[in-house]
Amino acid sequence: MSSIASGAHEHVFLGRDHRRNEIRTWLVIALTAAMMVAEIAAGTIYGSMALVADGWHMATHAAAMLIAALAYLYARRNARNPRFTFGTGKMGDLAAFASAIVLALVALMIAWESLLRLRAPVPIDFSQALVVAALGLGVNLVSAWLLREDHHHHDHGNYGGHRHHDTDHAHDHHGHDRRGGARDNNLRAAYLHVLADALTSVLAIVALLAASIYGWLWLDPAIGIFGALVIARWSWGLIRNAGAVLLDYVPRSENLPDEIRRAVETDSDRITDLHVWQLGPGHHGAIIALASAKPKAPSYYRGKLAGIHDLSHVTIEVEPAAV
After folding, report:
1. Same domain flag for 113 and 213
2. Which of 40, 187, 195, 238 could connect to 100 by a Cys-Cys bridge, CB 3.0–4.6 Å?
3. What is the phi/psi pair of residue 288, to 5°?
4. Do 200 and 55 sit in the same domain of this protein?
């Protein structure tokens, strides 16, 4: 049984909180940029190289945030661009993968600088360094609060799909609002950048206090190496998660293929081919080929799948079972 799909439908698979996350990312960029200007200006006026250096560090931090913000903007503006045949929902995962690489490079730079200082300790102006670390920690805590994932928030924007009916090849957009557990890797990447900076500030404060009291100059670079290892671990987790989405890998923790099989298969209806992949945060697509001894209309099987959350785009092909 076959026919050409009729009617046009949209492929908008942005995350439920896409607009909210985009706005908050821009707010963090603005906050970071303001802090950058203030530190560079104060450092120049008062002759503090520590403040100037941290100001330029803030600039690199803002640049990393910009990757996430531009990804949100581009995905939203091109959400209905027909050249993106499955929407722009994966744009955030592409940005997250790039951010994870940047995060890994940051970890390498911290580790390298720390190793150099272990080998050749440098004098530290403890009062200035503590002020800078405290200011950086304050900005990062506010930024982390802005970028936290709030699964209780409800975005009523039209980011879901629209139900579409075909005859034998059925494309279905389920309008479920149960995507609270969907992970936005783009937001997570921005959050991890902020968290890495906050961790660096906390460790720096501990090391500086211990070094100023006990004279342990080696503790500052030693803690720097520890921080680099933690950041590298975060980076690897983000690379793995974002990369899996980009490669259409279905994690073992997701039982969506099994749910589809349980919902559709019977003694007379068997799935002969099944493809499931993520279209965007909280949105999955599926291509299902069925062989049936008693073939029914695709709408019949579509009805069986209606209760599966996160399934936003379905293509069903039904063929008579070989006798």
Report:
1. yes
2. 238
3. -125, 125
4. yes
Whole-model pTM: value is 0.78
Cα–Cα distance measured from residue 143 to residue 140, given in angstroms and rounded to the nearest whole number: 5
Same domain, 142 and 264: no
Q: What is the phi/psi pair of residue 292, to 5°?
A: -130, 135
- Indicate whether 7 belongs to any domain: no
Domain end (from 195, 216, 246) = 246
Task: Tell me which residue of 275, 274, 260, 265 sits closest to 307, measured CA to CA.
Answer: 260
- Listed as own residue / partner, the contacts of 247-250 with beta carbons closer than 8 Å and 24 or more positions apart are 248/277, 248/278, 250/276, 250/277
In sequence order, which residues have a C-beta less than 8 Å from that of residue 29 and are 6 or more positions away? 62, 65, 66, 69
Residue with tokens 């995350």, as numbered in its chain: 15
- Give the pLDDT score at 184: 87
Q: Residue 227: its pLDDT value, please?
A: 82
Give pLDDT tens digits for 265-297: 988 899 999 999 999 888 999 999 999 988 889
Write the pLDDT tens digit of every residue in 115-157. Answer: 888 888 777 677 777 887 788 888 889 998 988 876 544 443 3
Cα separation, 271 vs 284, in Å, equals 18
Say how many domains are in the chain: 2
* 66: containing domain: 18-149+184-246
Gap between the Cα atoms of 294 and 300, Å rounded:
12
Same domain for 50 and 98, yes or no, is yes
The tens digit of pLDDT for each residue in 187-243 reads: 998 898 888 888 878 887 888 788 788 877 788 788 888 888 988 998 999 999 999
The three-point CA angle 314-318-320 to 5° equals: 165
Is residue 172 a part of any domain in this protein? no
